[in-house]
Design goal:
Shape: rod-shaped
Strand content: 5-15%
CATH class: Alpha Beta
Helix content: 55-70%
Number of strands: 4
CATH architecture: Roll
């Protein structure tokens, strides 16, 4: 159950301006509050949210996200929102639990932090795997001629010799 929840939360993480962030409306949904309530709580505590914790999306970023993930689908409230969404980094999300202050917010934040950690672990594992693969390719590249010769020898040994034709006696 917890792992599924972590995956669901990880699917809400977006890459904006080279940072992994979650958007205000996704966070509001997780916290079970309206987006305007979440943003109001943040605005009352702006000193807790410097630019590296939270930033407002530009019109172009909103358009790009709409194309990428299909947010604000036709007929859904918020399709033509007059307010640009806020994006929260991992640090900003951690700060949200202190601003919202409910037990629900704390519980949700724990799940979100686990999702960020799981993503970071997955990325580092992928990077380590890529590094090892490159090392292997490099080592194999150095031994290409030796390996090709070895394969040729093995192929020669695997060939079944053709039986010698016996000379026919008689007519």
């Amino acid at each position: 159950m917890q792992k599924r929840k972590t995956i669901e939360i990880a699917n809400l993480v977006r890459l904006v301006r080279g940072k992994r962030v979650m958007l205000d409306f996704d966070l509001a949904s997780l916290y079970r509050v309206e987006t305007k309530q979440l943003n109001r709580a943040v605005k009352r505590n702006l000193e807790r949210f410097p630019e590296d914790f939270m930033f407002q999306l530009t019109i172009q970023e909103v358009r790009d996200l709409r194309c990428q993930i299909g947010t604000f689908e036709a007929g859904v409230r918020g399709q033509h929102s007059k307010y640009l969404s806020y994006a929260f980094t991992q640090e900003g999300i951690a700060m949200l639990s202190s601003v919202l202050g409910s037990k629900e917010a704390i519980s949700v934040n724990i799940g979100i932090m686990r999702a960020f950690v799981a993503m970071r672990d997955m990325i580092s594992t992928h990077a380590e795997f890529s590094r090892k693969l490159e090392q292997l390719e490099y080592r194999l590249g150095q031994h290409d001629e030796e390996i090709a010769g070895l394969f040729e020898t093995i192929k020669q040994l695997m060939k079944i010799p053709e039986p010698k034709k016996k000379a026919r006696i008689g007519f």
